């Protein structure tokens, strides 16, 4: 059960304004307190959403949750750090709500918590992954070439080659989601950068 489900929303104190321009310090103390608690529940919400990929095969040899676990397991066993492994775990989480731009959904979720390079890999893995199948669907296999010369080109190519395109093996012994949960919680513990950083700072 996620943290958000344990909150009694009906009986919580609420701000009094009808329009934001009527807002008072009192109103925003209430909302700020709620926000801090809600933000802490992010790892739970992300893990809950990732579970929606369970049983979703889309014609692939493994379902999307197994693909995610396998990508993360391969990255972890290859010695990647936690930011990278969490990115690998979540890289396709956008398949449900971003059916036409899934890499950007995952990239946005992890952006406050990872390096610029790890974010870039996530955001652009779609074009690099296309190298392995776009030509079967009438698309340009070399779509990734538009990023040639970019400082993160090689890192993204490597992610797809070593961990993503290789993670469709039904016989691979992937770690279970519980194995990665503590990593997700550690990586999402505190944003490295956020326009709301001051609002989540404890008084
Ligand atoms: Fe993907
Ligand atoms: Fe993938």
From TrEMBL:
Residue ranges constituting the HD domain according to the UniProt record: 64-134
InterPro entries in the cross-refs: HD_domain, OP_Dioxygenase
PANTHER family, per database record: HD DOMAIN-CONTAINING PROTEIN, PTHR40202
Name under which the protein is recorded: HD domain-containing protein
